[in-house]
Design goal:
The chain is built from 3 helices and 5 strands, in the order βααββββα. The protein is of the alpha+beta class.
Length: 125
């Protein structure tokens, strides 16, 4: 017998929140629908909805992927030590040829700061 999987808790950085708030209402709604899918499927969310990020120093970093009009939206995320989905940053990959080169190191920094805050808060890591 297979048990129903509990949804993953989704948390997000202030950078992600600012990006999402800057988006059109239709893009926000589509992003939230994909985030809900990620919450329900967690680590089992398959390609083309999710894929690994190459060239990152964080082997667990992934991207949520979808098209919105002519845009190719990417949301960088990682599963944290508390078994939560942490949304790091988002954007339109077509906005810059170097979108990954700029945003992946930025997202890595966000996650490092988050891990440090967990340690400071007494998190057992």
């Amino acid at each position: 017998m297979e048990c129903a999987q509990m949804p993953w808790t989704v948390i997000y950085s202030s950078v992600f929140e600012e990006w999402l708030e800057s988006c059109s209402e239709s893009l926000q709604n589509e992003a939230l629908a994909h985030i809900e899918l990620l919450s329900m499927m967690g680590v089992k969310l398959p390609f083309p909805h999710s894929s690994k990020i190459r060239g990152t120093k964080l082997p667990g970093m992934r991207e949520l992927r979808f098209k919105h009009g002519k845009s190719e939206i990417r949301i960088l995320y990682i599963f944290d030590p508390l078994r939560q989905v942490f949304l790091l940053a988002g954007g339109d990959k077509l906005s810059s040829k170097k979108w990954y080169e700029k945003n992946v190191p930025f997202a890595e920094g966000i996650f490092r700061e988050y891990l440090e805050s967990l340690k400071e808060d007494g998190g057992d890591m």
